[in-house]
Write a structure and sequence with these properties.
There is one protein chain. The protein is an alpha/beta fold and 224 residues long. The chain has 2 domains: 130 residues, Dihydrofolate Reductase, subunit A (3-Layer(aba) Sandwich); 87 residues, no CATH class. Helices cover 23% and strands 26% of the residues. A 10-stranded mixed beta sheet has the order 1-9-10-8-2-7-3-4-5-6, sandwiched between helices. Strand 3, helix 3 and strand 4 form a beta-alpha-beta unit.
Length: 224
Amino acid sequence: MRVLIGSGDDLADLYAVPRTPWLRVNFVATVDGAATGEDGRSGSINNEIDHRVFDLLREQADVVVIGAGTARIEGYARIGKPLVLVSRSGVVPEHLRGSAPGEILLATYAASPGLAEAREILGSDAVIVAGQHRVDLKAVKAGLAARGWGNQVCEGGPHLLRDLLDEGVADELDTTVVPRAVGGHHPRITNGAPLDVPLSLHTLVEHEGTLLARWLVTRSPDGP
């Protein structure tokens, strides 16, 4: 664990991955646990230092993974590197259709109702079929690594983070806690059935009240 005050150290070194394949998930939340602001988006609660780390993790990554629903809500556009949408329905968001080949990929499962249409829209090579009746996230991670994309960052959403942790796929959880309390009814960074996944604090950075942490997922001897 490294505990730092301020932001003078090289963030690139602090957030370097130890090996590949490596999948980390990045989230921002308020002190009282809200993962979004009043507009339902994370962009309304983050700040400058969170933006810096967000941009750094994306720059370091070979590929960005995100839940298709979160991509719709947050208004994701082309990001200059492969963007993989994880979708149970197999439906490609309207605003991401018509992208150049290889810009947008979709990960779904064989029985997904939108599989055939997704292949028509994105091309067969851009559709990752992982699992028969649900998305096999381990297979998605392995499939991306097989394409040469070993440094993987997931940018949400809460349901996908919950499943990545539950299935032993995520290696790291990066969190930003901004010094705000917003009340109301907002999602947490995980959403879904209960789970209990031990985490080990690797790095903690404090910058003007904002806490940025790298949490490593603790694997049990018999676990994944």
